[in-house]
Write a structure and sequence with these properties.
The complex is a heterodimer of chains A (114) and B (114). In chain A, 0% of the residues lie in helices and 54% in strands. Chain A is mainly β. Chain B is built from no helices and 11 strands. The chains are: A mainly beta (114), B mainly beta (114).
């Protein structure tokens, strides 16, 4: 079945440093979504990428979808303590028995030291 | 906040028992998906309900079953509980069952099986 791998598992940064997490799927995706989960909280939708090579920005966050639609990345510029949490990518295939199924990566836990 | 509610927030059961978890979807959403999140892992897709029918299922045994009601709220039932069922159970509502719909998660039910 489809697998989504995410690296690194953990990332510790000093406030102001940049952060990147990478996501790779074993199959071609129709779209990829990114979520953030604060400690003790639930996943919160950040963004969706659909097109091959797509790049989207949200303030200090930059999201990319690979040309082959099998990988993605999230880059945070100049991290702040409010960025602390676990970042998940989640891929989705179109059609077949997996219709509507989101496959999550295992997440990257980001800690930011002030 | 997403407007998705879940009950109860916490639950302790013993092995072999049965449990029912409840979810109310966000207003205007007709699709509910259930996920299991073990500690330190990403959410794993259990199944999705659309218009009161199961519309996709992950790799979970038949003792995991669900319902969706005409008001789009949903239940997750787990029979013959096992220790490994201890996890955070998340429900997520979406606008519909189409590919590429953002998932809006509830706060989750934390289940402990002893």
């Amino acid at each position: 079945g489809q697998q989504v791998m995410q690296i690194p598992q953990y990332q510790h940064v000093q406030e102001g440093e940049d952060f990147t997490t990478y996501c790779n799927s074993s199959t071609t995706l129709s779209n990829i979504q990114w979520y953030k989960q604060r400690p003790g909280g639930h996943p919160v939708f950040l963004i969706q990428l659909v097109k091959s090579g797509e790049v989207k920005k949200q303030k200090r966050l930059t999201f990319q979808f690979g040309e082959a639609k099998k990988n993605s990345s999230l880059h945070i510029t100049a991290t702040q303590t409010t960025d602390v949490g676990t970042y998940f990518c989640a891929g989705q295939n179109a059609g077949g028995t997996s219709y509507g199924k989101l496959t999550f990566g295992q997440g990257t836990i980001l800690t930011v030291h002030p | 906040e997403t407007g998705v509610t879940q009950s109860p927030t916490h639950l302790i059961k013993t092995r072999g028992q049965q449990v029912t978890l409840r979810c109310s979807s966000q207003s205007g959403h007709n699709t509910v998906s259930w996920y299991q999140q073990a500690l330190g892992q990403g959410p794993q897709f259990i199944f999705q309900y659309y218009r009161e029918e199961e519309n996709g299922r992950g790799n979970f045994p038949p003792r995991f079953s669900g319902l969706q009601f005409p008001n789009y709220s949903s239940e997750l039932n787990v029979n013959a509980l096992e220790l490994d069922d201890s996890a955070l159970y998340l429900c997520a509502s979406s606008l519909d069952s189409g590919v590429g719909r953002a998932q809006y998660f509830g706060p989750g039910t934390r289940l402990l099986v002893l």
